[in-house]
Amino acid sequence: MVANGTPAPRFASGCSELQASRLQLSLPLPDVLKHSFQVVDGPPSSSAGNPDEIAKLFPNLFGQPSALLVPSDTSAAASDQSLKIGVVLSGGQAPGGHNVISGLFDYLEERAQGSTLYGFRGGPAGIMNSKYVFLTSDFVRPYRNQGGFDMICSGRDKIETPEHAEETVNMLDLDGLVVIGGDDSNTNACLLAENFREKKMKTRVIGCPKTIDGDLKCKEVPTSFGFDTACKIYSEMIGNVMVDARSTGKYYHFVRLMGRAASHITLECSLQTHPNITIIGEEVAATKQTLKNVTDYIADVICKRAERGYNYGVILVPEGLIDFIPEIQQLISELNEILANDVVDGDGMWKKKPGSQSLQIFELLPQAIQAQLLLERDPHGNVQVAKIETEKMLIEMVETELEFRRKQGVYKNDFRGRSHFLGYEGRCGLPSNFDANYCYALGYAAGALLHSGKTGLISSVGNLTAPVEKWAVGGTALTSLMDVERRHGKFKPVIKKAMVELEGAPFKKFASMREEWALNNHYCNPGPLQFQGPTSNVTNHTLMLELDAGA
Ligand code: FBP
Predict the structure, then answer these.
(1) Inter-residue contact 155 to 125 (CB < 8 Å)
(2) Which of 20, 342, 370, 401 gives 20 to 30 Å between its CA and that of 334?
């Protein structure tokens, strides 16, 4: 049964053999979810920063404990209690989203018979405009273990005020809402939970950690889903480009990798493939590098490699790089102000507004990059870094620097840069075994948390380096991930993005190898993502190194 719009059937246009075999796969659940369980509350929680302000912003939720599911002879919730639950996918795609919904659906089928699951279409806007579909077994089936978000689609609209969602939630008489999203979406999920509780509404809200960027994580939420698959897909392509570079011996490949804010994807792909140069944004910011410093570093490595007879190489750059360079950060924040309040006129009158240093930097940038910096911001006010071709900008700047060195006689080769952007091609791949299992458990756990009356938690599955059966399952208080930012004179709650830790095990491992990788060729080609065989259950280096270091 379908309401408000009929989505196209998933496999109307055909299904590959691999897709078909993934559809048939039945997924393992952590042991605790296989039998009866109880929900045990932990100690009261605080916040990631500014607890007094968070307490004021979330008076009904602040301090609530996180929850852990433990085996029990009696079940936490009555199995004859049917529920009405809504689910929404928010923000950029990440492999595994369909499995979160499948896990939630199966929980309701198995543990709360007679329940109804509504899928809000097109992201948070679907809640505000009451656009939804009934998710039935037939509807969900073709999406199991498949990439993409096309079961109900996603969107980046923001629920500006919780009141916007109330009407729909009341109209559908929802017991619960599951918000599958990144840091902004989970912040909004928490605001909704607070509002519903304040108004004594019965609707509870549970978040799920999604983003390929890998920057929504904490002790209880060791990774966001999609990161594992996306990094494996990108690493395959980088490995192929490396073999191409070595085969022709004449190109420097500049590969920009998605990751709007944090450089986790770039770091992980570097650990998987061993490129000659990897720029990590967090390090650039910590060491206050300028664009010229970054350019010089790349040019220095190219010159040293030339001395060894190598006129080729592979360079990884995070999508968010420019936002880490202090002088460009300043320029972007001044441009944000101008774009928020004024029109950027063709006559260039707007150029009177930024400070002289920012304007000087702006004028130094290639024209294409200038235009990209002026593009419209996303609904959260962020510059859309996916649209800024940093890799092309670096090629131009390195070319100019090498030309200068050639004139001085310190570089004699021809430099040929080739640009690549690996982004969208990794977001909708068939989820890896890890992401398929992780997402299924996250969705199943979200159902369990709602059923046992919890709200304002993010579904949390831990102990991820152990076999699935041993995974820990629970929910973490969303307010415990929050800090505040001052915007327009007011404190706004935010879930702080988890950035690459320069003291963390993954960065240290990379830093210990980078010089060797720069000058000698240690290229490593991981090949395509595997679903069966010896490497199929290997998770990414970042997760393994972080969890091992924390053990
Ligand atoms: P989320 O944080 O919403 O998961 O999205 C991450 C991301 O894939 C970034 O890596 C990228 O910058 C951005 O989405 C691209 O956004 P869009 O899909 O709007 O082009």
Answers:
(1) yes
(2) 401
